[in-house]
Amino acid sequence: MPFGLKSEGVVRVYEYGCLAPVSGEEAIVGVLRARSDLWNKLIETERELDRKRREVYARASELASLGVLEKEIEFVSNLIGSLREEIKRERKLHRQGSVALSARMLEDLNRFKGCLARLKAQYKEARKGALDGVREELEQLEEERRQAVQRVDDEFKRVLWWPNRDEERVEYENARKRLVRSRSEGQKAELRFHRFDGTGKATVRLRERGSAGPWGMPVGNIFIPNSVCWMRPVPPEAWTSPVRAERRRKARTVLHFRVGTDADGNPVWAVLPMVMHRPLPEGGVVRQVSVVRERVGRHFRYKAVFTVQLFPNAIKEEPLLDGVVAVDVGWRRVESGIRVAVWLDDHGNHGEVIIPDRLYREFLRLKELQSLRDTHFNEAKKILVEFLKKAQGMPEWLLEECRSLKEWRSPGRLVSLLGRWKKNCFPGDKGILNWLSDWQQREDHLYDWQSHLRDQILRHRREIYRIFASQLADKYGVVVLEDFDLRKVVKTPPPEEGTQGSIPPDYQRFIVAPSELRLCIVNACAREGVSVSLQPAAFTTLRCHACGYVEKFDAAREIWHRCPKCGELWDQDYNACVNLLERYFSKESADS
């Protein structure tokens, strides 16, 4: 939970759209900037201590003679990389996803991969033994890190209210845990600085006035003026009126949000018009409220996020439904769009979750718009390079700014340069400035179009997933899902395994967002009191549900598969659902 130790009940998050603040916007932006500065200061501290940890590791490695193993690992990794580059060249030459690789090439690649795995295992064991000798020194560095983080926190007490400092530290500690886990898996990970772009969130914690007990304010009291956060009451007709225009009108309210405290100890307020399109749950406790500022194109959008804790007496009782449904998540292109998941219940009813073709084409339009922007940007760079070569009497600042112009990848750099150039004109630059101004006008139009289109289609996709999840939670008492790490599924496959379709795997993941679908299902089930059962994912696709035979086949290239043992023809995702239901009922029988 974002506000402390876990307690009874469940936590739900409610989002409401807001207009730009009528007052206090500068204060909100100041908090967001201070949070960004705090994060960067923490990362600066982390990197300095990380440098000291590397020195300790280097001494330990030298004592344990790990350098030989490191060189061998690097040598074998380079061999694998060379082979994969050769495979990429072959694929590019043939312009297709699957290339008939020579047996010699595959044999060499598999041998090198096996050798690399053995070397890494040896290195891991040797390094573990080497670090045991410097464990005390590492613990001292960890204590030094904690003290440094506390000093940074104290430094920001004057500019940042404590709920925001606390939240930023929690995010930093969570990022460190992910960093340690990634490095333990052999990845070269690093915590990164954040460039402040005007986005972020400001947070307040709520507590009853005069109370010294647990944090939280009853939902009904959020409509009563207080010293932290409150809003104007909203009548019940805002959610119950049969007239849509009346609901829209009466759902409008005003949020008073405390951003911080001034030098005299007086609260600093931000006031935001808000649309409360649905009520907060009765019997709940509002633990914290955040105002989020996000960018869409060249404009900013606000929303208010309420974190509400529901105690057992305020949560829906277990449903009387006894149906069981299995959902297999896995995307593939079908005639009507992209199939994201297949579901099957214990009565034989089944169906699919499909991103419709019209929405799929809008995702592809995003790539087309990006390609068009890149083409215009490359043309602008070419024109500017030619101008710099021919023009005389260039100011030094312009030549310095454009020193690496050919390597620029962000149109924003050229827009920034153009803004400075217009304030510092010189003789002979009128023509190029007019041309670049026309380019900027096209770039602004395409950038806004692309950004708003992305926002619309992502919200449309989320609505499809939410509706499906709500239908499951309303109809069934148990939802069965595969228990596996989705991060491993969406990784780009190595070249020897092919590209798995004409769309790059990372863009397939972006279109489908399987984690978002699973999250929608889990949230809907938690809201309605429906059980979620996670079953092992091993061989759910490869095991024939009719005879139990397990065959390894290329599941990425074919939806329908015929079992070589019993001859049964089945859709592999439907087959996975049958196996999930079988494992669920087998486990239930064993437990009973």
UniProtKB/TrEMBL annotation:
GO terms for molecular function: DNA binding. Residues 124-185 form a coiled coil. InterPro entries: Cas12f1-like_TNB. Residues 517-580 form the Cas12f1-like TNB domain. Keywords: Coiled coil, DNA-binding. It holds the Pfam family Cas12f1-like_TNB. This is Putative transposase-like DNA-binding protein. It comes from Thermodesulfitimonas autotrophica. The lineage of its organism: Bacteria, Bacillati, Bacillota, Clostridia, Thermoanaerobacterales.
